[in-house]
Amino acid sequence: MYVDGKWVDKVLLTEKEKKKRKRESNKKYALKHRDYFRIKAKEAYAKCLKDPDKLKRVRKQRNAWYHRNKVRLKLHRQAIAAVQYAIQKGTLIRPDTCEKCGKTNPEGHHSNGYEKEHWLDVEWLCKDCHGEATRK
Fold it and tell me: Is the pTM of this model over 0.85?
């Protein structure tokens, strides 16, 4: 394996470096296959346009879902913005590790809900622990 232009037999990477490499690999793949993804999206849209009933049904379902969740989504966005602002201001400190397992790069999890009084009540969990906590 080449690392910084040098051949290395075995490389021990940190989680952050692994994520960075994976992200770069995904970007390269997306750029290489960009035309394919565009064509597939256009085909799906054209298929939907051929069947006006399906198009109406999909739009109706999407609208219904949005209106059912409008208030919750607004509170969710506001809670995230409040946490980001508090981190920038320095009133909330983002730790380097997950509170449950100790992995790096934690995300904020609003375990008490998105009401205004709980906006800054955040658990710092890695992606895996956050997914588990959300599914509970």
Answer: no
